[in-house]
Specification:
Elements: H1 24-30, H2 33-36, H3 40-56, H4 62-81, H5 93-105, H6 107-111, H7 118-154, E1 159-164, E2 167-173, H8 174-199, E3 201-202, H9 218-225, E4 229-230, H10 234-239, H11 242-269, E5 276-277, H12 296-319, H13 334-357, E6 359-360, H14 362-369, H15 376-385, H16 390-407, H17 416-420, H18 430-433, H19 436-442, H20 451-464
Parallel strand pairs: 3-4
Antiparallel strand pairs: 1-2, 5-6
Helix pairs in contact: 3-4, 3-7, 3-9, 4-5, 7-8, 7-13, 7-20, 8-11, 8-20, 11-12, 11-13, 12-13, 15-16
The structure holds arginine (ARG).
């Protein structure tokens, strides 16, 4: 939990060249400690690896290293216990920790910043932090996928209308429909994994922008921190935030997928559709209308996708006109990124429970199917199998649909004799293809909606988890 930093009258760590103390308003304006203290754990890990490398390279002594390790260990405990005194004077998480370290470890603390700048430090912290969050998001995605796959397996044979233009199009199974979201979220996982490997590159060593005159060992630091490689070019390493932008793009896309599912849940649960019942524990009532049971969770997920899209746009706009290398603008990268991570994680977690609790209403789905001539294409295909050209078959069935409309009934309910008026090739066996079950069962190929295929697809998805 973030603690409120205290204002004080201390000197800044960089105040050597200044004649007057910084204006109070400027101090508050430029401080980031209020939000970047979230990076404390990563800042300490990065400092430890840096100090160990400095000692190994003979840039600081073993004794200095021991003092630094001890001091940083204590600071970590203070932060975890909530007793660390965050200060606005120290501007950001990096200087807060460094100042405390110097208070604890004296000279050794002052040596830690050798061959380093806050510019490569903050880029390192942010990458370490985001790497961990990507792993947490991946786990949350896997959990949601598990819930979707379980529902798809349970309802592999449950027929419902599939829609185009939000109009009843053809019968599909509820399981098949849910597996469409499984496919989307699986791609989100792959995208995030690829993004992770570009996040997982070490900037430390770039220093302010030009590298350092000390004989540093970047590979050693990378290894200790679990980075896959180096953000090699020192100017690029401190200035680009494309890794954060890329993450937000992945997050925005995942949120758009959740938002579409949320939208469907809102529609399905509305009494006009009545396709699903939502668990009471995921709904809210109205303070004025006693009869209401609102799908607030789904609506909020749909709404929150806007925040994550906003984060992506914010970071793109933040980056676009910055000259190389580091600019303070980049301090503005954190809050949108944090918010994108928090929002996506929250939405994934809550959606898992909502999906697991969805109860479909087969009767309502079937009733909707019976109103939309949903098996018209099946009848046309039937005629094609009897030797009619598809365009002619299409025309014959379209006329039959018009007749059904005129009688206020569904194509599937027209008597055989009536159907035969539109094509003499229609026989008694056509009745079977006009049922939703016959329709879905006939789409029996990889990626099709036949219950057997849905079960197989669900099993494959389960294996990929
Ligand atoms: N708080 C700063 C940030 O978030 C850290 C880097 C500051 N570097 C500097 N030269 N002012 O980006």
């Amino acid at each position: 939990m973030a603690t409120k930093p205290q204002a004080g009258s201390g000197r800044q760590l960089w105040s050597g060249r200044f004649r007057e103390p910084v204006d109070e308003r400027v101090k508050r304006f430029s401080a980031s400690v209020g939000f970047d203290q979230r990076l404390a754990k990563q800042d300490i890990a990065g400092s430890l690896a840096h100090a160990r490398m400095l000692a190994a390279a003979g840039i600081i002594t073993k004794r200095d290293l021991t003092a630094i390790e001890r001091g940083l260990g204590r600071i970590r405990r203070e932060i975890e216990a909530g007793s660390f005194a965050w200060s606005l004077d120290a501007e950001d998480v990096h200087l807060n920790i460094e100042r405390r370290l110097t208070a604890l470890a004296g000279e050794a603390g002052k040596r830690l910043h050798t061959a380093r700048s806050r510019n490569d430090q903050v880029a390192t912290d942010l990458r370490l932090w985001l790497r961990e969050e990507i792993d947490a998001i991946d786990a949350a995605l896997a959990a949601l996928l598990r819930a979707l796959i379980a529902q798809a397996e349970r309802h592999a044979a449950l027929v419902m209308p599939g829609f185009t233009h939000l109009q009843v199009a053809q019968p599909v199974t509820f399981g098949h429909h849910l597996l469409a979201y499984v496919a989307m979220l699986e791609r989100d996982r792959v995208r995030l994994a690829q993004c992770r490997s570009r996040v997982n590159q070490l900037p430390l060593g770039a220093a302010a922008l030009a590298g350092t005159s000390f004989p540093i060992q970047r590979q050693r630091v990378a290894r200790e921190l679990g980075f896959e490689g180096l953000a090699e070019n020192s100017i690029d390493a401190v200035s680009d935030r494309d890794f954060a932008i890329e993450f937000c793009a992945c997050a925005a896309l995942a949120m758009v997928h959740l938002s579409r599912l949320a939208e469907e849940i809102v529609l399905w649960s509305s009494p006009r559709f009545g396709f699903v019942r939502l668990p009471d524990r995921y709904c809210t009532g109205s303070s004025i209308m006693p009869q209401k049971k609102n799908p607030d969770v789904a609506e909020l997920v749909r709404g929150k996708s806007a925040r994550v899209i906003g984060s992506l746009v914010a970071l793109l706009a933040l980056m676009k006109a910055q000259p190389l290398a580091y600019n303070k603008d980049n301090q503005e990268d954190k809050e949108p990124l944090f918010d994108a991570v928090d929002t996506l994680k929250d939405c994934l977690a809550i959606f898992g429970g909502l999906i697991a609790g969805l109860v479909p209403v087969p009767r309502a789905m079937r009733a909707a199917l019976a109103e939309g001539h949903a098996t018209a294409t099946d009848l046309a295909d039937y005629l094609v199998r009897k030797g009619v050209a598809f365009r002619d078959a299409h025309e014959a069935v379209a006329r039959a649909v018009r007749e059904a409309e005129r009688r206020g009934t569904d194509l599937a309910r027209l008597p055989l004799a009536t159907l035969r008026r539109f094509s003499p090739k229609i026989g008694a066996d056509a009745k079977r293809v006009l049922t939703p079950e016959g329709s879905v069962a006939s789409r029996n190929h990889v990626g099709g909606t036949a219950p057997a295929q849905v079960r197989k697809a669900a099993a494959r998805a389960r294996k990929r988890l």
